[in-house]
Design brief:
alpha/beta; six-stranded mixed sheet
Length: 368
């Protein structure tokens, strides 16, 4: 078996020529294909023909594979490994009940676990788009959503709302390209956050966060191999090189089943191309927004630098003005002293003249 030939391992994969013939025979497919940039056309043909693996971080592929309505065991297994305890996904929650405005909180995949706790799994291409502040908003939305449900149930039953009935909420974020601060920890690919006190006192404050920088995970796996099942899951999400697809398929049979499902999806060429085109539009939009945000940050930083320089110049101007005032005062004092010295010199000269006159008078009149 050729290790770089996924078609031999997954016989449902079609060749590049077969794909191009189908595209050429369908006016709608051909039109849609021609809207893609050449490099995107190449990427599409590569993953449909098995030259490369499918990018599972595309939202549509991720949701299709991890959809709990189709197979809840997959997401349950992944979350159990990530949360470090056995959990079972019991239902998928929609975004319709969210508390925050739609423009702010639109969760990728939000589920309820068997103990009533709520978890959202977010897949983000660029880390800038999902900072800690946004994670806190998502967490608050899930907590308020649960509170509203409990409050409404208590009201319907004629009982009081019991805050102790609220269960934890977990915000899980997978970064394809993680924020810069994560790269200060090159040996860590899972970061867990929860609220703690300064004294060691423990209280159940419900909100927990897990951030996974997949770019760091890739480097670790490429250097050390896949060492456990969690690393296998994360590699499945982010590594599309054929050799890794084959390693996962051979060492973890459940991933082979998932790859087979994905390549069966790819046989529906029009459906996959429409899905891919939509993903690219969103990706391009996010990239443009990222560039705008970066430019705005640069402008804000330059404005702050200019403002700081203006403040420093003003401070220097005030300091110089103060020194000028001091010099002016000293000049005035020196001028006053010069005038006093001039007066004294004139007085001395006058006294000397008087002495000379007296000496002359005594010389002319010795009898005086």
């Amino acid at each position: 078996m050729q290790k770089n030939n996924l078609q031999q391992y997954f016989p449902m994969i079609r060749t590049r020529n077969e794909l191009l013939r189908e595209i050429g025979a369908s006016p709608s497919l051909k039109t849609l294909f021609n809207t893609l940039k050449p490099e995107r056309q190449q990427e599409f043909l590569n993953f449909c023909s098995g030259v490369k693996g499918v990018r599972l971080l595309y939202d549509s592929f991720f949701k299709a594979v991890m959809d709990p309505d189709r197979d809840p065991s997959r997401l349950s297994n992944f979350l159990s490994l990530l949360l470090q305890r056995e959990v079972t996904v019991v239902s998928v929650l929609s975004n319709e009940g969210q508390i925050m405005p739609d423009t702010l909180v639109v969760m990728d995949l939000i589920v309820r676990l068997e103990d009533g706790s709520i978890t959202t799994v977010e897949v983000q291409r660029y880390g800038y788009a999902f900072p800690g502040q946004r994670a806190a908003c998502y967490s608050a939305d899930m907590l308020l959503r649960q509170y509203k449900q409990k409050r409404d149930q208590a009201s319907a039953n004629g009982t009081r709302m019991n805050y102790r009935s609220l269960r934890p909420v977990y915000t899980i974020v997978l970064y394809e390209f993680s924020p810069a601060e994560f790269h200060a920890y090159p040996g860590d690919y899972v970061h867990r956050f929860h609220q703690v006190s300064n004294t060691g006192l423990e209280m159940d404050l419900l909100e927990e966060y897990i951030f996974v920088p997949l770019d760091i995970l890739k480097e670790i796996v490429q250097n050390n191999g896949i060492r456990n099942q969690l690393e296998a899951w994360l590699a499945f999400f982010c590594m599309d090189e054929p050799e890794w697809v084959l390693k996962l398929s051979e060492n973890y049979p459940m991933f082979r089943t998932m790859y087979e499902e994905i390549y069966e999806m790819c046989r529906n060429l029009e459906g996959v191309m429409q899905m891919y085109s939509k993903e690219l539009r969103e990706l391009d939009s996010n990239t443009v927004q990222y560039m705008i945000d970066q430019m705005q940050e640069d402008l804000n930083r330059k404005d702050a630098e200019l403002s700081q320089k203006d403040t420093q110049l003003n401070q220097q101007y005030v300091l110089l003005s103060h020194k000028d005032n001091q010099l002016s005062q000293k000049d005035a004092q020196l001028s006053q002293k010069d005038a006093q010295l001039s007066q004294k010199e004139n007085l001395i000269a006058e006294l000397q003249n008087q002495i000379q006159e007296m000496k002359k008078l005594l010389a002319e009149n010795p009898d005086l």
